[in-house]
Amino acid sequence: MSETFQAVSASSEGDYLLLAIETSCDETSVAVVRNGREVLSNIISSQIETHKQFGGVVPEIASRKHVESITLILEEALREAKVELEDIDAVAVTQGPGLIGALLVGVIAAKSLALALDVPLIGTHHIAGHIYANHLIGDIVYPSIALVVSGGHTEIVLLEEEGKFRIIGRTRDDAVGEAYDKVARALQFPYPGGPCVDRLAQEAAEEIVLPRSWLEQDSYDFSFSGLKSAVLSEINRSRMKGESPDFSALARGFQQSVIDVVTGKAIRAAKEFGAKQMLLCGGVAANRGLRERLSSLCEEAGVPLLIPPNKLCTDNAAMIAAAADLKWRRGQYSSLDLKAEPILSLEEWSV
To answer: Name one GO biological process term (predicted).
Structure first.
């Protein structure tokens, strides 16, 4: 990643406006954020209805939809924020990780704007955005532990100080959101099935107990492929007996297994590293069962918990502005040869 480092940030001159663009997967989003905290607009155009017929995101279609939407979403974000392009002080964009074609649409748009407006460009890490979405609703206290749960990522991140990321645990196979969608298909739910599994689990009267994948005793890593296989085995076992699978009991068993492992490891990490705060981040942070369990465990452990509202959990540009603000305030700007990076290291992106 190529960056130029300025000695003095423009933020020293008073209020500033960051325009942020997010196109890492299947949401086209543009936001205008004042001073890194005040969201003036956060427009999100979802492609769920387009991809639903395919049972998942089709990268080529996602890229085309971003091209069709980006200008309209940009105009709407400026209109809702009641600002003009000339008022923007810097342009932030998701550089990675994500789908390469989708990322390219946002990066090209951001570079064009930064060049035309003669303002700084700030390439931003998608997961840093999810983590710093919490900064839009409250102050982050360090050291803190971030539990990142999304369709493409499941990680436990230690933040020893502002903008310093250290990954201490990650998934070895499926991300938790990916596991939810695969199990949802097995339970005959349409894409995206995660919210359906959560709702069915909450309503279930019984639970089919499924295995917990704790891995090695001291590991903070995750593995969900075995749990997914256990769900499929239960369905096949029922059908071989000529019985109808109890989908609600399976959904509850699957969700309880996931929640036990991810929250258990997050709380253990908070205790080991002396975290003063827990941050829940990513699209799966909207899961009601996960929110309730983590809230209860954090209260028992005496660790304050921050969880963004649902609109800031899923992919959105306001979170990208919140993360980009870390580099804006330090005058760390990207050069115009910025490239989209589908595999971008969070730890190397640290400020």
So the answer is: tRNA threonylcarbamoyladenosine modification
pLDDT tens column, 16-55: 999 999 999 999 999 999 999 999 999 999 887 888 788 7
Reported as a single tens digit per residue, the pLDDT across 54-88 is 878 898 998 999 999 999 999 999 999 999 999 99
How far is 243 from 240, CA to CA, in rounded Å?
A: 7
- To the nearest 10 degrees (0 to 180), the angle between helices 288-301 and 247-272 is 30
Residue list, annotated binding site for Fe cation: 126, 130, 315
Element (DSSP H or E) covering residue 30: strand 27-34
- The secondary element (H helix, E strand) that includes residue 288 is helix 288-301
Regarding whether 302 and 171 lie in a shared domain, the answer is yes
Binding residues: 126, 130, 148-152, 181, 194, 198, 287, 315
Q: Which residues are annotated as a binding site for substrate?
A: 148-152, 181, 194, 198, 287
